[in-house]
């Protein structure tokens, strides 16, 4: 395959989907992943028709280490030439204080945002090391820079992503692999609907009275990182809505 290849985890909605569309527009070959097979197939069909680029779908849960390894290793050698990996799949669940939170929510966030990111990176980075080439973009969060009420375990997973990004950059230094992080503030995707277990009213209230980031704002940042000349690594991008100054300060005037 002539063009570069990008692997995006969590491409069935939000940032991941927007990145798939934007990188396809720039003629990348795409490997898109997620748990919702139907959405992956729909997106692949749309991209192939619209952008005439190669798309591979892999349906798996990043929490299942065996499945991650099996699915990724089912790719042909040609598809294993991944130039850009975006570790995007992730979620927040709940906003209760520690004493009131659901333990099952904690387990799911830790298994997805932290262990899932590590499982995928373990396999894909080995391919990059062999080729002495690659860009890894981890999706962190403002919650990985600052604590806020009820952010507890979600924040902890994103602080861990921040640490892993720095640590990976050191590990991969001898292998010519760039490691970057994007740390967004409030962006309107399915994120809050998932966080509040499907409560649409609570989800909508998160974005009330100001203009949040869009998924495409973050996709554009990812494309900027990936398209820098080979000698340039963007270490970290903290991106906020203009109406948000910190995790806890939003100017709701609308
Ligand atoms: P969405 O809920 O819209 O998208 C999340 C994506 O992650 C989906 O494609 C989902 O796919 C995938 N995913 C979730 N769990 C798993 C799993 N176990 N296995 C595989 N895929 C999984 O949210 P966003 O686009 O907003 O979130 C993307 C990333 O950005 C997350 O890491 C989130 O923490 C982070 N983020 C979001 C912010 C926001 O305000 N929206 C701000 C800062 C960071 P499927 O359900 O099909 O598996
Ligand atoms: C998502 C942004 O502030 O809701 O990571 O945690 S926040």
Describe the secondary-structure layout:
Layout: E1 5-8, H1 14-25, E2 29-34, H2 37-51, E3 55-59, H3 65-73, E4 84-87, H4 103-131, E5 134-139, H5 152-171, E6 177-184, H6 191-195, H7 200-206, H8 215-226, E7 236-239, E8 244-246, E9 249-250
Parallel strand pairs: 1-2, 1-4, 2-3, 4-5, 5-6, 6-7
Antiparallel strand pairs: 8-9
The structure holds NADPH dihydro-nicotinamide-adenine-dinucleotide phosphate and 2-hydroxyethylsulfonic acid.
NADPH dihydro-nicotinamide-adenine-dinucleotide phosphate is lined by residues 9-16, 34-36, 61-63, 88-91, 112, 116, 139, 141, 184, 186-187, 189-191, 194.
Task: Write out key terms for the chains shown.
9 strands; single chain; globular; two-stranded antiparallel ribbon; alpha/beta; 254 residues; seven-stranded parallel beta sheet; binds 2-hydroxyethylsulfonic acid; binds NADPH dihydro-nicotinamide-adenine-dinucleotide phosphate; 43% helix; 8 helices
